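Anyone opening a protein record will find just a pair of labelled lines. The record below illustrates this layout.
***
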Amino acid sequence: MDLTMYDDTYRAFCNLLNNDHARVLDAACGPGNVSRYLMAQRPELNLLGIDLAPRMVELARATVPSAQFRVHDCRRLADLNHRFDGIVCAFGFPYLSCMEVTDFISSANKVLDSAGVLYLSCMEGKSEDSGYEFSSSGDRIYVNYHSEDHIRSALESHGFAIAEFTRLSSPSNAVKRTTDIVVIARKLQ
């Protein structure tokens, strides 16, 4: 999918990375769309993408041959045994419950180096609005919605300062109209 409406936020993430050869994790990377953009902006990045779905990892490898990809659960960041300068989780949160999002943010703090940058995006809503929906391909999937308050609270309580906060209307071809939240935060210590 061509989702250029998020490009400004990905560019902002790239601009906040301190190191020339930054180590970046694309968590829940899907078919590699975000990885492709990041590598086009910063070809010197040392990028690792992970996704739980083997087919997504296969597609990402074909999309971005200059990066590394592996099948791995984003809920288990510590098991990667890597340190990162930046982590992107672009729309992985619809697959995670509120508690899993809090745990992800806590884990991100542990694997990010000092002053590391964290990029998060999700669909805004109340957790009680979460439930089964149909994707554009007709698949029935469970979608979690997350509130601004929960995201902000989880970031602040796990040692992050918010650098940028953006709301965007969902893409015009979205199956369901939503408001998307994009947050870029920096690790304080």
